Amino acid sequence: MKGEIAKDLYENFLIKKGFLSIFSSYGLCLLPIILGDNIFGPIFAATLLFPFILAPTLIQSSVTMDEKYKYEQYQITMPVTRKDIISAKYLLGLIFTTFNCLILFILLFMKSNGLDENTVILLGILGIIFSIFSISINYPSLILFGNWGMIPMFIMMGIGILIYVIIPISKIIEFTNELITMDKNQLLIGLLIIAVIFLFISYFVTQHFYNKKEFN
């Protein structure tokens, strides 16, 4: 499994195309927080950009490189099980998401736009929860269907952007402020538990169907 993780890290950070993909995704996700002058930028980044653009970037880049060089055909002949392959990708995805959420927290605290500590913590936790849901949906799709698996990611991004376009910014900010003032601990804990359960289901479902996948 260590070899699989090392391979994915090499593809994403030491090959120019993979690095540019990661770098451009970070740039897109950081801009609303850095340049925004109200609470909308952090909300948009924490609930849409970080979870649904940045979180799948690592696996998306890896799948693209694997398909280009037909790596999966050689991978299954190596002394590594298919379970190890799936475990490595999910583990690396969780590490990447943890790193992303740490950056999100730091940026929210540094560029808070007048946000209080509770708001920053709320947005950071929502970013974590949404990122786990994103991994649970996007990883199976990308691992099992390759670049065609990007369709669910585009659908979720489209729905998210549509919501932000339809609902006035003032309403989004007002809803967030109301959420901050309510007793949100049980809600967030419940959502986090559901997200983790969903992640485990995603992992075992992906593992099951990947074991049956044929490589041409």
UniProtKB/TrEMBL annotation:
<dbReference type="InterPro" id="IPR025699">
    <property type="entry name" value="ABC2_memb-like"/>
</dbReference>
<feature type="transmembrane region" description="Helical">
    <location>
        <begin position="85"/>
        <end position="108"/>
    </location>
</feature>
<feature type="transmembrane region" description="Helical">
    <location>
        <begin position="187"/>
        <end position="206"/>
    </location>
</feature>
<protein>
    <recommendedName>
        <fullName>ABC-2 transporter permease</fullName>
    </recommendedName>
</protein>
<dbReference type="Pfam" id="PF13346">
    <property type="entry name" value="ABC2_membrane_5"/>
</dbReference>
<feature type="transmembrane region" description="Helical">
    <location>
        <begin position="145"/>
        <end position="167"/>
    </location>
</feature>
<feature type="transmembrane region" description="Helical">
    <location>
        <begin position="18"/>
        <end position="36"/>
    </location>
</feature>
<feature type="transmembrane region" description="Helical">
    <location>
        <begin position="43"/>
        <end position="65"/>
    </location>
</feature>
<keyword id="KW-0472">Membrane</keyword>
<keyword id="KW-0812">Transmembrane</keyword>
<feature type="transmembrane region" description="Helical">
    <location>
        <begin position="120"/>
        <end position="139"/>
    </location>
</feature>
<keyword id="KW-1133">Transmembrane helix</keyword>
